[in-house]
Design a protein that fits this description.
This protein has 137 residues and is mainly α. The chain has a domain at 4-47. 28% of the residues lie in helices and 0% in strands. It contains 5 helices and no strands. The longest helix is centred in the last third of the chain and has 15 residues, at 106-120.
Length: 137
Amino acid sequence: MPRSYVNNAYNRRLGRVGMPLGSMPVSSPKTYVGNSYNQSVGREGLKHGTALISKSSSQSPSVKVDVDNVFNRALGRVGMPLGSMTVSSEKSSTKTGSPVKRKESYITINIRVLVKGYCERPICISEYPLLNRNLSR
């Protein structure tokens, strides 16, 4: 005897209880999801394959411009065409301001202490409270 659809709420709703398996398949239409890209090109919710986007599409901007971020704002090039205001990568002697001093983590400090101690002399852990604290677990 061929297998058939069981009697459950889903199959009752579709009207296929007792029918041979595979005789009444259910297919749901696949549609474009509602993400920012699909919304920007206007194809959110449309069936797959109905709104194809090509590289030469008139919906995409023809000229790419510099985005609005802190770096581009400081250089005054937000909205300018890409590549129109390049920044030299050479080191300049007219640079102002001091270099950024970052706080080192205790892990970095401990590694530096270990390497220095290993290269110079054997270290005594009691001399380094951070090492002593972390190794005493």
